[in-house]
Specification:
This protein is mainly alpha-helical and 241 residues long. It folds into two domains: 84 residues, no CATH class; 127 residues, no CATH class. Helix content is 54%, strand content 5%. Strands 1-3-2 form a three-stranded antiparallel β-sheet. Helix 6 packs across helix 8. It is elongated, with a radius of gyration of 30 Å. The chain starts with 32 loop residues before the first strand and ends with a helix. The chain binds zinc ion. The site of zinc ion has 7 residues, from loops. Zinc ion (ZN) binds next to loops.
């Protein structure tokens, strides 16, 4: 069977066929045959399939993509015969042990990465020092950063760039920009975040670092005495060298 050179009946008119266009009908797996994934479900590795079964007994066009390699089919009887041998069972047990060991190593590395993220967060937060009025500092930084002219990716779409922050904004918004500002001002945050890159489980670890630092900032913010506008103005004046 050769792949059609034009879209199948029912396809959107003239749309080019690519490997991302699914076949309209999945090829049925004939009775008495197993696919590679069917064999894997029974405990076969690809190496075991190659070593014990060799070439497939039949092939079918790939059910998902026109251009993909044909689906390999193996006679279920041949697979069952191989599975009944002690050698196959030993090989499967070896494969199971290797897989379990690999998963244990990956789990250990993920745990190490997460522990590193928590340690980095703790080290960073130890150096955390707020300006006299963290909220006003965040408002000022926000207004310095965003202008009607800027189009910050991820922020512009939310309407952040057009906005002018003020102390009269909703508390939830002010809290968020205050925490974010304090985190961005932490010396070494980016360096710490970069130390997680490329490690096993780093996707989660970046989030752990951010969340742990945010939580510590929020705790320290909550522990601060409230800053009245008058006190804040006074504190800012004192900051000027
Ligand atoms: Zn902006």
């Amino acid at each position: 069977m050769t792949p059609p050179q034009s879209p199948p009946a029912g396809a959107v008119g003239g749309r080019a066929l690519t490997e991302t266009v699914a076949r309209p009908r999945a090829a049925a797996i004939p009775e008495g045959y197993l696919t590679m994934s069917g064999l894997r479900e029974r405990g076969w590795t690809d190496a075991m399939i190659r070593d014990y079964l060799g070439d497939p007994d039949a092939t079918r066009p790939n059910p998902r993509y026109w251009s993909a390699a044909p689906m390999k089919l193996y006679l279920a009887d041949r697979a069952a015969t191989a599975e009944a041998t002690p050698e196959w069972a030993r090989r499967k047990a070896l494969g199971d042990r290797r897989r379990a060991a690999g998963e244990a190593v990956a789990a250990r590395k993920r745990a190490e990465t997460q522990a590193l993220a928590r340690q980095l967060a703790a080290d960073l937060v130890a150096t955390l020092a707020f300006p006299a009025d963290p909220r006003q500092a965040a408002i000022d930084a926000y207004n310095d950063w965003h202008s009607t002219a800027c189009t910050c990716p991820g922020w512009h779409e939310l309407g952040f760039c057009d906005k002018h922050a003020a102390a009269s904004d909703p508390p939830e918004f002010l809290h968020r920009i205050t925490v974010n500002h304090a985190r961005h001002e932490l010396p070494g945050y980016d360096r710490a975040d970069n130390r997680l890159a490329g490690r096993v489980g780093h996707q989660d670890a970046h989030e752990i670092l951010r969340a742990a630092v945010n939580a510590a900032i929020e705790a320290k913010l909550a522990a601060r005495p409230p800053v009245t506008p008058k006190e804040a103005a006074e504190a800012r004046r004192m900051d000027i060298p």
